Amino acid sequence: MTRLSIVFFVHLLLLASFSNALPAGNVTPGNPVGDSVDALVTRVMSERHIPGLQLAVVKQGKMLDNRCYGIANLGDSIPVTKNTVFSANSIAKILSGVAILQLKEAGKLSIDAPVSGYLDSLPDSWKKVTIRQLLANVSGIPDITDSITDRLISDNGEYASWQKVQALPMEFQTGEQFSYNTTNYLLIGKIIDKLGDMPFVEFFHRHQLATAGMKHTVFANSYNIIPHKAPTYSYFHQCANGRYRKTDKLEEAYEEFPGFLRTDAGMFTTATDLALWVTKLQTEKLLRDKKNIAEMWMPVKLNNGTYGGFGGLLNGYALGWPVILREKHNVAAAIGGGRAALFYYTADDLAIIVLTNLAGGNPELFIDDLATYYR
């Protein structure tokens, strides 16, 4: 599910040709910035064979740009519009991070407290893990999904998988390394359910989606009927054993996001909705204390004082956000399924959001180029 989508695709460059990635942006004629952005996006879509794309830019609480390109549904040649809904996969984690910090602001938890202070009947080896360590994927708790297939570890469903994962040994000592892990966010969901006094999806809706006016955002499976949803396309075919193999044929990809794991992944949204969310974050409508916003983007150190992360460009991990640490323009970089990304340039108070309908489109690899036009 989410691990395969991000880790497997994150540095992937697809080689098969695609000729229908034509721009349909809301361009202002004669605008040199707009023309330059269109030229860059058109070139990248052609090189990466991306059928359709949305772009939104937010700076200091205001939306600077909002563009649409290409084809949402290849079968019917339906163009991308601002209402086209894309799979954002693991970008759901940033809503989980905000929800936890909202509960902190309400005085209901401490993110450095052991999870056992909020959840009962956990295995002894899990009890000292903190909420911060769950959010940062450094807990060492075993994964409830298979690392190869991204399916639940039991064929008998959610309850059987939950019972099975609790009987497994720790993967490593807490804080010793980074390991992208669905169980971490399952536990985050249980905490939100309990302390928020409602199911976590309802908590998201009440305290984030409604606040931001995100009318097109839902939590679901790609099998569900979602109005205006663009299919996700891929050059990778999932075999009966759950493994993936590369093909030369573009096909629709279907992903299952179990309901109890949607704090981890399973969000479908638009670039406009995410831009609205960012504006509310920037203007303290989601989190009241700027210190909590800064803490959300602060990468968590391992026991040896270094940072854990996916490696390469993504060299740290904060509270639901992968992080890019470098000499200039650090980024809180939410990435979903190798097809969607929200880059927040913390020092610039600038967010660039790119959603695509190609698994392996990897917008995280070209958002830096787009950002140069908006700083």
UniProtKB/TrEMBL annotation:
<feature type="domain" description="Beta-lactamase-related">
    <location>
        <begin position="37"/>
        <end position="369"/>
    </location>
</feature>
<dbReference type="InterPro" id="IPR001466">
    <property type="entry name" value="Beta-lactam-related"/>
</dbReference>
<dbReference type="InterPro" id="IPR050491">
    <property type="entry name" value="AmpC-like"/>
</dbReference>
<protein>
    <submittedName>
        <fullName>CubicO group peptidase, beta-lactamase class C family</fullName>
    </submittedName>
</protein>
<keyword id="KW-0732">Signal</keyword>
<feature type="signal peptide">
    <location>
        <begin position="1"/>
        <end position="21"/>
    </location>
</feature>
<dbReference type="Pfam" id="PF00144">
    <property type="entry name" value="Beta-lactamase"/>
</dbReference>
<dbReference type="InterPro" id="IPR012338">
    <property type="entry name" value="Beta-lactam/transpept-like"/>
</dbReference>
